[in-house]
Specification:
- This protein is mainly β and 93 residues long.
- It is built from 2 helices and 5 strands; from the N terminus they run ββααβββ.
- Strand 1 and strand 2 form a beta hairpin.
- The protein is 13% helix and 39% strand.
- The strands form 2 sheets. The chain has a 3-stranded mixed beta sheet, with no helix packed on it. It has a two-stranded antiparallel sheet with strand order 4-5.
- It is globular.
Length: 93
């Protein structure tokens, strides 16, 4: 995506923001430690999701009410020390 910044897990900060060479924003959420949806409102989740920026969300099932109607889900399964990726386009009608 053209990000030159150091990329790290947002485990404690909940969200990290990165800028591409084209000055577009990418957001990386790690919601494992999320206590409630109020925390997301405090960081502006609605504005971020409405911004048309690329958002990567770990543990999205914790915010199912905030997810857009259409999104791409990437599942990573570890089986016998091998990672198996599956990609699914989700369209809520």
């Amino acid at each position: 995506f053209g990000v030159e910044d150091y990329i790290s897990s947002p485990t404690y900060s909940i969200v990290n923001e990165y800028e591409t060479k084209e000055k577009k924003l990418i957001y990386h959420f790690d919601l494992y430690r999320l206590n409630d949806e109020i925390e997301l409102l405090d960081i502006g989740i609605e504005e971020i999701l409405d911004s048309n920026s690329v958002c990567f969300i770990e543990w999205p099932e914790k915010i199912i009410n905030f997810l857009p109607d259409n999104y791409v889900r990437v599942n990573i399964e570890v089986k016998d020390e091998e990672r198996i990726f599956s990609i699914e386009v989700v369209e809520v009608k």
